[in-house]
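Much of our argument rests on the idea that a fold can be written as discrete symbols. In the encoding step, the backbone of a single protein was reduced to a row of integers, each denoting a local shape. This step matters because it turns folding into a mapping between discrete strings. For completeness, the protein is quoted in full, as a sequence line and a line of structure tokens:
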Amino acid sequence: MKKIGILHGKERSFPEAFVSRINSKNIAGVQAEPVRLDKAMQGEPSGYAVIVDRISQDVPFYRTWLKNAAVTGTAVINNPFWWSADDKYFNNCLMTQLGVPVPKTAISPSRELPDDTSPESFANLSYPLDWKSIFDYVGFPAYMKPFAGGGWKHVYKLRSPEEFYSKHAETGQLVMLLQEEIVFTEYYRCYCIGGKYVRIMPYEPRNPHHLRYVADFAPSPERLQQMTDIVLTINRYLGYDFNTVELAVRDGIPYAIDFCNPAPDADRASVGEENFEWVVETAAQFAIEKALTQEAGKDNLTWGEYVKRSSHQQPLI
């Protein structure tokens, strides 16, 4: 029996529908369930051919347990090793090498010293930084947000250097991005599953959270293909099996704004019935594909082109 598990937190609508959808297909030798974890010993298989991870970004215990599951043959969606290494700043840096349009972005050290460090730990860092060059590069208005993490937490819109200094003082030990504002005429949130299935959803981030998928942007077939190609390129190089990409269109050019969302919102109440149906069905189909091709004791993870090309010393493009 090939078991497909889903590891999740407090969300219910997507995990329950995902399990039900797989089991309703009656695929011989395939069964889905919420992950059951009652012990964790090194080198022991998890008992699952596939695990869809929706929560380890918030639970370090789960993240390291998933790495053991992967080492012993489970196809973990998403790859826990890459997810641990990835961050939003690196993603933007990579896109500059691939020709994917992204906002001008700089990174700033945390306002407060990290634990177990002292000023002497930063002997290589100029103080103060060349803020004028940074501000001239990014421009204002700008957005400041953590270089890792998501969920619209600790996001600030800034209109001046003075506002940057004021808000940066509130960020504690968070390492922050300072990012150019893209004043858009259209905005889209795009699911990408399995590195090949894409759903482009009109999205309005300026609306209240429960109304963000209520948007009437109507892309042309050419724009849809352009955005699909960008979404596929991003996920092919990062290696995510389940991710969302946010695209803001300015002057006819889609800019990748946020594309490190490996546990994206898939709640029926927020994404709407049609998007929910698509993501449940597509995730179920992909998980079944992974289960049927999974080989016990082997590496069944997805690795992105960045890692694969680096390991073979090949150019990125």
